[in-house]
Amino acid sequence: MTWGIISDSSCDLPSNAFAGSGLHFGVVPLKITVGNNEYIDNDELNVNTMMTDMKSYKGPSSSACPAPEEWAKEFRKSDKTVAVTMTSALSGTYNSALIGKKMVLEESPEKSIHVIDSHTTGGGLVLILRKLEELITQGLDFEAVVKQAEAYARSIFLLFSCGSYDNLVKNGRMSRIAGILASSLGIRAVAANTPEGTIRVLQKPRGEERALEAIVRTMSEWKNLAGQPVVISHCNNPVGAQRLKEKIIHVCMTTKITILQTRGLTSFYNDNGGLMIAF
């Protein structure tokens, strides 16, 4: 029996991330539209080109979830498949995956397919995918893998701090005046996912250093992270990501920290300088 683990492209992992594991790993890409240009969020995407295009384009940009058939194509490749999607509260990706699941099970009812709504994005999906690899390699049956993975997904927190408010303003999610004011004051808002998968702003510190301190303080208050995994995703901000890693090691007593460059979708929302932390 063959196993597959599938994710949408908000996971920030390349398609070869689980090479050598014996599992099929597939990434179903979202698409980002900037003016007349469409960018497919796959391994070939040049994120910097897309970000430069977004910066110069004066109008709003948009993202689109994968079609059900794109999920179905991946589901057909394995006997047992668990897929993980970004939060359904902010994207139609989860529902698209469910439709793809239904399509494949109607064709091949002997297959086992489950779709997890992560209620998060970015590094949150990375942690769930790695947990799935761990559970599957332990030899657990499909139902046990799904039950433990779902429980693990509900334990994950996500914090983030956008590097710029330009994209939020262009797409009507923040007023132009509020964006100008926040930028001029150097405000680096720290936000988090909710249990329902939506977003709430926690604090509005001024400057990246204070934002990093607020993130680490929140992490230590919300969870005992001693020896636990953490994933930091950054949008062209390796220095900030490294400083954050050092603070986490010192305060939260864990060295199991992965730093990733954001892919297309997470770069689209975090903008240059942005940071996301899953734990």
From TrEMBL:
Superkingdom of this protein's organism: Bacteria
Keywords from the UniProt entry: Lipid-binding
GO molecular function: lipid binding
InterPro entries: DegV (IPR003797), DegV_C (IPR043168), DegV_domain_contain (IPR050270)
PROSITE patterns with a match to the protein in the record: DEGV (PS51482)
Pfam families (UniProt xref): DegV
Matches recorded under NCBIfam families: DegV
Protein name: DegV domain-containing protein
Organism: Caproiciproducens galactitolivorans
